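Q: Structure tokens for this one, please.
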Amino acid sequence: MKIKVMTYNVLYGLHNRDGNLILLDLARMRAVRNIVRAEKPDILGLTEAVYCEFWTSQDRNRIIRVDYEQLFGLKHSYATGFEQEWGSMILSKFPILHAERLQLGKNHRGESVSAIRATLDVNGKRVHVDVVHPAPKISDNDRVTAFAPLLKTFTAPYLMIGDFNSLSEEDAYDRKKLIREIPANGKEARVVADRMLVRNLIPSVRSHGLEDTLPKNNRTHTIPTKSKGREPKLRLDYIFASRDFKVISSRVIKNKLTETASDHYPVVAELEF
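A: Here is the predicted structure, written as tokens:
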């Protein structure tokens, strides 16, 4: 049986942030709708899907969530919330038998970040999916620690998808080029680049028998899109699969719509088990 899996960071739940204003961007919403509907994924993991922020002292932690079920035509869903831009979501054409939020460490402010763990009924076969989005401004070793409970307890057949905020040691990066492109002063840019180049999370994920579904000859950056401007080109978004799956195809989607729909490109994989 073949299934199509997609992961997409949709940037502030398709809203734009301007100080205390958080406004829905209808143009981005339409673009993301058309991107997803063109791919017709069976399973979709969204990061930055559910957005909330402190607006005023009287209106704290207001949750903002687009009706993604209607937008994409995927009626089964589960979402986290009240974690600022860390709210994730899973949508599926298959029934979700069970879903829960699991701890995924903390961000640089010490606030908790969650992953989603879901079990889907894929035509009578149980498929287990974790949607992950760890904080960017922490060390990769902290991410390894945060992921360890997920990796020790997953059940196959299994998928781990999302924005990992971590670079693969299999991808080539030039430190001097990173420093030039990071939007910070010289000393800070060097610190950020060196932190990014400590790449322990992705090999830790692979060491648990999970395959990076994007083939090496098809790997490219997933952030930034052209709408983001000049920043380092990084591959942060991944679809990992247990050995129960055969990878038919996998790619980063780059076209006119994905250039402006978000600051990340989506990743899609067609798998067979």
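A few notes: The chain has a mean pLDDT of 92. The longest helix spans residues 26-39.
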